[in-house]
Task: inverse folding
């Protein structure tokens, strides 16, 4: 059964550094998402992406964040200058239709 | 802004049905009820969704009341692997995001 994959599983970075989190969505899916979950807190929506553009984004998704689908298979989340409060699990999701979202296993980002 | 209300936790016995309630009294006509679960910090997993009719799939059944103000997710034969946080989410068809609340922590006991 096809799955969403994410790399790396754990990323440690220093405050102020740029990080890129990578996701490989399920191959025929058209809708792509990023969510995050700070330890012990709720899963929070960051951004949705369809037809090569952002379709919706939350207040969390400020100018420090960007998304890209560089080669038709990968879907990346870039954080330009990480802060301590960016430490969280980041989940990628994809779907063939808007109503379905299949989540990846997550990348744990630790900012020191 | 919480659109759903779920009990914070519940226990159930292995092999028995688990009935998970959800209140969504302010649901709009174009909003669907979705259920996801999250097993110990893994990515959330889709379970089922419905608009007004009851739905069943290989994982669970979803019972939605006639006034659509509440619903129940039924896991027919709970196993230890069903221990997870279960999220009831209300979402309109034209809304891309899923808004997760705190969910119900379900513990299946042997």
Result:
């Amino acid at each position: 059964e096809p799955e969403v994959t994410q790399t790396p599983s754990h990323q440690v970075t220093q405050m102020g550094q740029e990080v890129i989190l990578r996701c490989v969505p399920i191959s025929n899916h058209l809708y792509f998402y990023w969510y995050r979950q700070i330890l012990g807190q709720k899963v929070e929506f960051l951004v949705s992406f369809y037809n090569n553009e952002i379709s919706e984004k939350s207040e969390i998704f400020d100018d420090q964040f960007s998304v890209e689908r560089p080669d038709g298979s990968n879907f990346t989340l870039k954080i330009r200058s990480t802060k301590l409060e960016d430490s969280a699990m980041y989940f990628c999701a994809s779907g063939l239709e808007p109503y379905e979202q299949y989540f990846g296993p997550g990348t744990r980002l630790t900012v020191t | 802004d919480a659109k759903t209300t779920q009990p914070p936790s519940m226990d159930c016995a292995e092999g028995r049905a688990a009935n998970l309630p959800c209140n969504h009294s302010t649901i709009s006509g174009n909003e669907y009820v979705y259920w996801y679960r999250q097993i110990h910090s893994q990515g959330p997993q889709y379970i089922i969704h419905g608009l007004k009719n009851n739905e069943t799939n290989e994982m669970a059944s979803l019972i939605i009341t006639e006034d659509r103000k509440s619903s129940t997710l039924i896991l027919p034969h709970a196993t230890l692997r069903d221990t997870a946080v279960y999220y009831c989410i209300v979402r309109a068809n034209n809304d891309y995001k899923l808004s997760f609340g705190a969910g119900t922590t379900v513990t299946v006991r042997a």
